[in-house]
Amino acid sequence: MTTRQDCAALDAADPLAALRDAFLLPDDVIYLDGNSLGVLPKSVPARLDHVIRHEWGTDLIRSWNTAGWIDLPHRIGNKIARLVGAGDDELVVGDSTSVNLYKVLSAAAMLVRADGGASSRRVILSERSNFPTDLYIADSVAKAHGFELQLIEADEIGTRLDDERVAILMLTHVNYRSGRMHDMAAISRAAHCAGALVVWDLCHSAGAVPVNLCPSRAGEDAGADADFAVGCGYKYLNGGPGAPAFAWAHPRHTARMDREQWRQPLSGWLGHAAPFAFTPDYQPAAGIARFVCGTPPVLAMAALECGVDVFAQADAFGGMAALRAKSLALTSLFIELVEARCAGFGLELATPRTHELRGSQVSFARADGAYAVMQALIGRHVIGDFRAGDPSAPVPSPDLLRFGFAPLYTRFVDVWDAADHLRAVLESGEWREARFAARSAVT
Amino acid sequence: MTTRQDCAALDAADPLAALRDAFLLPDDVIYLDGNSLGVLPKSVPARLDHVIRHEWGTDLIRSWNTAGWIDLPHRIGNKIARLVGAGDDELVVGDSTSVNLYKVLSAAAMLVRADGGASSRRVILSERSNFPTDLYIADSVAKAHGFELQLIEADEIGTRLDDERVAILMLTHVNYRSGRMHDMAAISRAAHCAGALVVWDLCHSAGAVPVNLCPSRAGEDAGADADFAVGCGYKYLNGGPGAPAFAWAHPRHTARMDREQWRQPLSGWLGHAAPFAFTPDYQPAAGIARFVCGTPPVLAMAALECGVDVFAQADAFGGMAALRAKSLALTSLFIELVEARCAGFGLELATPRTHELRGSQVSFARADGAYAVMQALIGRHVIGDFRAGDPSAPVPSPDLLRFGFAPLYTRFVDVWDAADHLRAVLESGEWREARFAARSAVT
């Protein structure tokens, strides 16, 4: 049986442990919610103070040139591209995940319509358990283009792709509830074989698990050959609350959009070929730049860049591959400890045991009082979160205790301590106290 | 003739002068570009440091509840609503101006289509000299709904409204080039009489001139009775570079959207009636809340709130009415001084002399070397900006020197000194130096 000393030894032997120093973490908290909001990079306060006082306050409007504000969507985009297996100038940062999904799904629908002619491919296929905003946006795009959004379970994807009406498969790589991870390459290949485009949401992947969208550099693995992707900046990228998101399109699609002068619908001025010509007619910028829309939120972009830059430090220790190995070690340890130490308390693992199917989080289902259990755990400064189940779904889903393990800053002793507190909460029955039952606005 | 001493006396007698202390301004700069990027409120560095270190760094995910992050779009929205004559819970903050314009124009187009039946109203009418992003987004919305965007000159609005095909009139209240201000109430009335909806862009109005969209409080002036509006946070509201923008809809439209369960197309999860229920089906939140889309950018929102809060300080000195009076005094003085002191140097006033037609900026046309003249002026630390003309437009427009006069922090001596430097630049011919001709990326 693993002991706390064993965990401390793992930390002592962990070459990635030094990366924890890149963050300002509260001393009294075990933070296992980096899959909802990442922690604060140590470089942010000084960077933001500089951006605020010097770039904004002193240099003012000149900073669009002198501080390179105008390049932020591309400069940070290129840094994130390296984390998700995309090439240079293939990925841009700005707007929210929802807005970026609207852009790329709209572009995908345009491609389908342009190619389809009288084709009957008019279905956007996704998972019922996808993050809701993806489904809301997909439904909106479907309505706008005369498509239909159809929701299925994960294990139906293969068979449902045989339906010749499926135009676009839209999936989140790592499920926000279960932490189940799709095989991006295999599913993308299957979608293409079936004649469908594939759009990936990387919100729970970027910075957490290796992603290989489509390396454009010769000689590398061909990657997933995806069509479009989006992802968020405020989870594993540690970009701050509500940090800007990103959008990626395969170069074959942006090249075609170039040739045929297509726009995406959110054709704001900074996606124009010559924004400062101020011409009344929209001419989309070349390549991925047409997916930029309005003026970039400079303060939020600066914080995100600090978060993304930490990953460059991780390169010295093996980069995403090393982070992935640590992530799996952390999640495997948590599963082992909770199942051993909390046995008999009604927890049921909701995350795949198979490494290839697991993201960087662990969820446990519990039929009774899962919300209160998590509140009691938070009362002990062990911060995970609760996700309500849906008993009325075609496949009813349970209430979940959700724990994220960000390998940049989570220690093995944190895993041990969190499991220990969880056992204490369940064993003592303290979660039954009335104060833990009251719901907050944000759960 | 006004002297610099006269200007100093005006400053000494100006009750609003104290508001300048609410900002951190560089000592060596005369900043007349607040209509492009507002200055830094003194409260921002400490507020952002608190949000970063305490709310994000220490309280982490709990701040969605404890720091009220989830309410930011509404809380700041209600503060901006007071500045533009909107009621409580009628205005929300988030996303860029371009994205918000897409939301409200799409909603307007849906209304037209729902009401029109077989109607032939399928034209969105706007000004050729409108800010380009407005035209780009309107063109995109027009294409999506089978509408057509038609561009006209300002003086054609009245006659062109007689065209029964006009469905939506989309105007920017204060023109970004000339500073010409429309009569919002008269034009809104004319549009409604003609059977069209009216969408206002308040980017150069909010915080600069009184706006009275539609007071919902009984007993007040009925206001402009506009249909929809958007505006930006980083100009006269001093919310920081790329600050979030806002969207407003008349309550009669959001009430109808409630009754008929309509969404706007960017139906992200935070515009859902119950975002934390995580249901797969989108149910729009009631009222204006459906115009919220993704997760709010908390750092950027916090800075914007600092900027907006300065206006509450201005209330003690007469609020927007007093700010408007000062703005007109500043712009009138600049026109007087430049016309008197720079006579014979080829400057031609491009901003209306009539107060009712003037926003809070002054533009001068110059046929020769306007870009270099502005660069030379910036070399002397007098910061305005240059806007290129369009010689190929149906009504050719000239190159402009553009000067914004934000009444919260601009002094009468600044006006005098700016005019003095402009005279010196022109008289000395220093603008002809090669270094002033080289274009920057952002002009």
Tell me about this structure.
The structure is a homodimer of 443-residue chains. The first copy, chain A, has 443 residues and is an alpha/beta fold. Chain A has 2 domains: 4-31 and 320-436, Aspartate Aminotransferase, domain 1 (Alpha-Beta Complex); 62-309, Aspartate Aminotransferase, domain 2 (3-Layer(aba) Sandwich), CATH 3.40.640.10. Chain A is built from 13 helices and 15 strands. Chain A has a 7-stranded mixed sheet with strand order 4-10-9-8-7-5-6, with helices on both faces. In chain A, strands 11-12-15-14 form a 4-stranded antiparallel sheet, covered by helices on one side. In chain A, strands 1-3 form a two-stranded antiparallel sheet. In chain A, strand 5, helix 6 (132-145) and strand 6 (148-152) form a beta-alpha-beta unit. In chain A, helix 1 (4-12) packs antiparallel against helix 13 and helix 4 runs parallel beside helix 10 (298-314). The first copy, chain A, is globular. The relative contact order of chain A is 0.16. The model of chain A has no long low-confidence stretch (mean pLDDT 95). Chains A and B meet through helix 2, helix 3, helix 5, helix 6 and helix 10 of A and helix 2, helix 3, helix 5, helix 6 and helix 10 of B.
